[in-house]
């Protein structure tokens, strides 16, 4: 029997458990592979004693409907810059060779890492250093290059849309402006999808730095015409034309990404100063990462899981199945990590939003 190691890394999202289940079921159906899971990404391999569990169809039964990941995850355990303490000093050390040799010593023939852009940059590095690894695209942000969809994105859009749906009547009842901040890092996928789905008046995405004058004009016209309310959806990574993103550095050891958040409050203050309007802010936050995966994400999770296992069986390492133009097909991890996937300015989402009169802050 061959041995396969499975892990989830980066932020959790709905659909991760569906991939885990699909890989385990496909492996059991194949009959030649045993599947194990490393908990908290590679921490399960690097910890002493290790924290690796055997994944059987009994363990994964029914998990595809549950959010989160039964394997747990981390977004601060980069094995190439692992936080450590040496002689009382806080340092970062490259543990990738140790990681790869431990995985081999434990008898694993291959690894499947379910991750987003940050995780797959690590996967590509490990592949270049001799690890037999295959990726699976996940993240609510939908910002992984080479795939039209990542697992978790559609469910996050549903969650954000439902929240904005709920905010519209209260904005209307109180004649207010409500600014809703959504996740997505430096890409506006969640923002623009949920703004269009809910029918927001303004959507502000990182791809189009916003002009406060354009927003003021839109709001003035909304209130002048007697509609008397407006809903603005803003990406956590959005920025004004004359200014930067709102972010801070995390004080958690090993946390590499800037912590985004606060742009909605900044915009609300600007609106209050410029116009005599009541403004409220809602930050959706990690609610977007929770909940049961919708049917789309469950199906995508099943397809990605099965395809990733196929790649392992065929020895096609350094690859990742993606969803492109309605087909599931493999591309190299090198390609998937070669660019960051923002919304192209000519994308139909942007032209459709503009055509319906939605203000994109320009
Ligand atoms: N396999 C891994 N094991 C442990 N830590 C990892 C692993 N892969 C990545 N990391 C850490 O997590 C960070 C990636 O987190 P990031 O939030 O960017 O994840 P992601 O994969 O892009 O998914 P998402 O964007 O959905 O959170 C990396 O910078 C690194 O510190
Ligand atoms: O779980 P954390 O560390 O707060 O990460 C938040 C980030 O993770 C994501 O939810 C997924 O990448 C981003 O949208 C957000 O900026
Ligand atoms: Mg990411």
TrEMBL record:
Signal peptide interval: none
Subcellular location: Cytoplasm
Chain residues that bind ATP: 11, 76-77, 116-119
A UniProt-annotated Pfam family: PFK
Alphabetic keyword roster: ATP-binding, Cytoplasm, Glycolysis, Kinase, Magnesium, Metal-binding, Nucleotide-binding, Transferase
Record keyword Cytoplasm present: yes
Domain Phosphofructokinase: 4-312
Binding-site residues, substrate: 139-141, 176, 183-185, 236, 280, 286-289
Predominant cellular place of this UniProt entry's protein: cytoplasm
Residues where Mg(2+) binds: 117
Record-annotated active site: 141 (proton acceptor)
Positions marked as site (Important for substrate specificity): 118
Main EC class the enzyme belongs to: transferase
Reaction(s) this enzyme catalyzes, per UniProt: beta-D-fructose 6-phosphate + ATP = beta-D-fructose 1,6-bisphosphate + ADP + H(+)
Pathway assignment: Carbohydrate degradation; glycolysis; D-glyceraldehyde 3-phosphate and glycerone phosphate from D-glucose: step 3/4
Cofactor(s) of this protein: Mg(2+)
InterPro entries, per database record: ATP_PFK, ATP_PFK_prok-type, Phosphofructokinase_CS, Phosphofructokinase_dom, Phosphofructokinase_III, PKF_sf
The enzyme's E.C. designation: 2.7.1.11
Function: Catalyzes the phosphorylation of D-fructose 6-phosphate to fructose 1,6-bisphosphate by ATP, the first committing step of glycolysis.
Subunit structure: Homodimer or homotetramer.
PANTHER family: ATP-DEPENDENT 6-PHOSPHOFRUCTOKINASE 3 (PTHR13697:SF52), PHOSPHOFRUCTOKINASE (PTHR13697)
Name of the protein in its database record: ATP-dependent 6-phosphofructokinase
């Amino acid at each position: 029997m061959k041995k396969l190691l499975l892990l989830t890394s980066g932020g959790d999202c709905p659909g991760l458990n569906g991939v885990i289940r699909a890989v385990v079921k496909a492996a059991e159906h194949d009959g030649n592979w045993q599947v194990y899971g490393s908990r908290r990404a590679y921490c399960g391999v690097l910890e002493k004693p290790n924290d690796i569990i055997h994944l059987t169809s009994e363990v994964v039964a029914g998990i595809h409907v549950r959010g989160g990941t039964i394997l747990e995850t981390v977004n601060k355990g980069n094995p190439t810059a692992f936080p450590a303490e040496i002689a009382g000093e806080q340092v970062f050390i490259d543990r990738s060779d140790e990681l790869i040799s431990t995985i081999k010593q434990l008898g694993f023939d291959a690894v499947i890492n379910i991750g987003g852009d940050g995780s797959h940059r690590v996967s590509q590095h490990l592949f270049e250093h001799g690890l037999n690894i295959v990726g699976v695209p996940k993240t609510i942000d939908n910002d992984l290059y080479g795939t039209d969809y990542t697992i978790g994105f559609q469910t996050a859009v549903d969650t954000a849309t439902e929240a904005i749906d709920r905010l519209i009547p209260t904005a209307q009842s109180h004649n207010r402006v409500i600014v809703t901040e959504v996740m997505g890092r430096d890409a506006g996928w969640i923002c623009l999808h949920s703004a269009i789905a809910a029918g927001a008046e303004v959507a502000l995405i990182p791809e189009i730095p916003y002009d406060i004058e354009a927003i003021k004009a839109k709001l003035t016209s909304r209130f002048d015409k007697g509609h008397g309310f407006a809903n603005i959806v803003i990406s956590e990574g959005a920025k004004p034309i004359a200014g930067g993103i709102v972010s801070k550095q995390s004080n958690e050891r090993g946390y590499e990404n800037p912590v985004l958040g606060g742009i909605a409050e900044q915009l609300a203050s600007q609106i209050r100063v410029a116009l005599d309007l009541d403004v409220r802010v809602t930050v959706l936050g990690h609610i977007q990462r929770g909940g049961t995966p919708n049917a789309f994400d469950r199906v995508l999770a099943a397809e990605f899981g099965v395809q990733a296992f196929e790649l392992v069986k065929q020895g096609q390492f350094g690859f990742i199945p993606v969803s492109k133009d309605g087909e599931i097909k493999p591309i190299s991890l090198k390609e998937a990590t070669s660019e960051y996937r923002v919304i192209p300015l000519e994308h139909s989402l942007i032209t459709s939003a503009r055509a319906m009169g939605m203000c994109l802050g320009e």
